[in-house]
Amino acid sequence: MKKPKQAKSDFDLVVENAFDFFQKSLEEFDKKPKYSVIHFHAAVELIMKARLLWEHWTLIITRPETANLKSFRSGDFQSVSIKDAKARLEAIVQEGLSQAEYECFLRLSDHRNRMVHFYHTGNTGNKSEFEKIVAEQCLAWYYVSRIFERWNEQFQSYKKGIAKIDKVMHKHRKYLKAKFGALGEDIERLKSRGILFSVCPSCGFKSFGEDSGNEPILDYECLVCKARETGLKVDCPKCGEENKLIGEPRHECSKCGHKFDEKDVQAFLTKDFVYDKHDPERSIVAHCDECGGYEMVVEVNHTWICSQCFSKYASEEVGQCEWCGSLSTGDLENSYFMGCAMCEGKSGWDSDKDD
Ligand SMILES: [Zn+2]
Ligand SMILES: [Zn+2]
Ligand SMILES: [Zn+2]
Ligand SMILES: [Zn+2]
After folding, report:
1. How remote is the CA of residue 261 from the centroid of ligand 4, in Å?
2. Cα angle 341, 346, 347; round to 5
3. Which ligand is nearest to the CA of 243?
């Protein structure tokens, strides 16, 4: 949908403001860590607001029912927090925030609030707190970059600005060097237990441990910045080459260049079930409440994993919707009335009839 001119330019102003805050935050880290924390948080919040603004300007106001265009333009209004933004993105934008992204941004809010309302030991020269802040910032930027890819339609004209912050962020990692150095022994010990280490996509150190004890599911955790990811070992449907997909299905085959998507992953994970003649009735796929993926969650080694967003669920988190009968993750307590990840239950059906 094409945006009205004015709304588009408000969007641009907010995004530019966010980039300015990112830049400032990283520049002032050395001398004014307190402002770095506050400005970094403001930048992340502004990106969320920009995305809501793209949909409609009233969405960034705490109480949209009080929205007034004149006070909006003069900046005289209370705007949404990251918590509100998540709920609104979920309700309005199909591709909102993942749980991991949200929790990371909440930690930024927590640091920020402690800086503003109390004091923060990271601001008084405590080295490990300093490292914690930088690690959080690296992780948050990693997530924000992923979000930019998901929201490509809105942010595609900002590729240059994103690359510029990315460069500064790389330099920012120098504060984590000491922490990485101190982990040498831990890394060697884990290596001898079969954990593989590769370069962390968030902080850039070779501290991204891969636990393959539950293949084809791979569990990653960075010892430096605590970035966590779930991966999957999946054979390429074109050439058969085994590929490691980290965090998401989008990936190019290392041998033939085939572009993987969630359907390839789902097909790979369900390939052995297709011929299960003993129990043809058994449903093997569930809808994903986290990303809204239709029949994307598959049971692998007693864990249910989504082929689209790689969220993992325990068996008890998967159930049958009492309205549509399909398997789904998420809250199914009142599914007869409220539905599941894919249907709106009886209440949705009733209101459709009323229309
Ligand atoms: Zn890391
Ligand atoms: Zn291939
Ligand atoms: Zn999912
Ligand atoms: Zn349902």
Report:
1. 25
2. 90
3. 2
Ligand 4 center–CA 217 separation, angstroms: 27
Q: Report d(CA 96, CA 291) in Å as an integer.
A: 8
Q: How many angstroms is it from 339 CA to the middle of ligand 3?
A: 17
Together in a domain, 187 and 162: no
Number of separate domains in the chain? 3
194 and 139, same domain (yes or no) = no
Which of these three, 179, 209, 243, is where a domain ends?
179
Between CA 252 and CA 239 the distance in angstroms is: 12
Where in the sequence is the domain holding 309, given as residue range(s)?
268-354
For 141-172, how does the pLDDT look when each residue is reduced to its tens digit (9 = 90+)? 999 998 998 899 999 999 999 999 999 998 88
* Burial profile 122-156: b = 16 or more Cβ within 10 angstroms, e = fewer: bbeeeeebbbbbbbbbbbbbbbbebbbebbeebbe
Residues, beta carbon < 5 Å, ion ligand 1 = 200, 202-203, 222, 224-225, 227
Indicate whether 174 and 207 sit together in one domain. no
> What spacing in Å lies between the alpha carbon of 329 and ligand 4's midpoint?
10
Residue 225 near residue 139 (C-beta atoms within 8 A): yes
pLDDT tens, residue by residue, 50-109: 999 999 888 888 887 777 777 777 777 788 888 889 988 888 877 788 888 999 999 999
208 and 284, same domain (yes or no): no
Q: Indicate whether 225 and 152 sit together in one domain.
A: no
Going from the Cα of 52 to the center of ligand 4, the distance in angstroms, rounded, reads 28
Which residues fall inside 5 Å of ion ligand 3, going by CB? Answer: 288, 290-291, 293, 306, 308-309, 311
pTM: 0.81
Which of 145, 179, 213 is the last residue before a domain boundary? 179
